[in-house]
Amino acid sequence: MEFRKLIQQRYSVRNFLPKEVELSKLETILEAGRMAPSAVNFQPWHFIVVCDKQMMQALANCYHREWFATAPCCIVVCSDHQQSWKRREDGKDHGDIDAAIAIDHMTLQAVELGLGTCWVCNFNVEKTRKLFQFPAHIEPVAFLPVGYPNREEVPVKKRKPTQDIVHWNTFKA
Length: 173
Ligand SMILES: Cc1cc2nc3c(=O)[nH]c(=O)nc-3n(C[C@H](O)[C@H](O)[C@H](O)COP(=O)(O)O)c2cc1C
Known about the structure:
Layout: H1 3-9, H2 23-34, E1 45-50, H3 53-60, E2 73-80, H4 95-112, E3 116-117, H5 125-132, E4 138-147, H6 162-165
Antiparallel strand pairs: 1-2, 2-4, 3-4
Helix pairs in contact: 2-4
The structure holds flavin mononucleotide (FMN).
Flavin mononucleotide (FMN) binds at residues 11-12, 118-122, 157.
């Protein structure tokens, strides 16, 4: 799919068809995440693929939304703070940025495969940590439910106008 069309077609899918996602498609999505750039190429991420029904229920208990329970599977994207690059000047940890890029690759790849996703960061962190027994340096960054969208049309994108966010040569607030 042409890139501009792809980003136009991606939207946050919050209603999925009760249809399993093919393993080969999930693997393609994960590969898109794996290919993402990262600071110093440290690749400080883990992608936990949840397809098992019981585990999906347990995950839904970490993010209580009716729509989330319609997803057939979910990729839990984690940042590894032992592996992420920290800028020497101020110690800024780039793990979240790296994870976000990988997630974005995966969301776009999913659209190309006819699938939908939705970023979810508003989950219960403690419950999620317990569920997967994450050690302290592994941070769950986002849930990425994946499935076939239960609608045909793409919603109109609500975005700020270009002039409010693009600055040429100087910054004016
Ligand atoms: C970092 C991040 C966190 C988000 N967390 C949630 C979330 O917890 N629940 C949810 O329903 N949507 C979440 N979203 C989706 C946004 O609401 C959505 O991307 C935004 O409204 C733009 O709509 P669009 O994705 O359909 O273009 C999140 C998106 C991002 C980028």
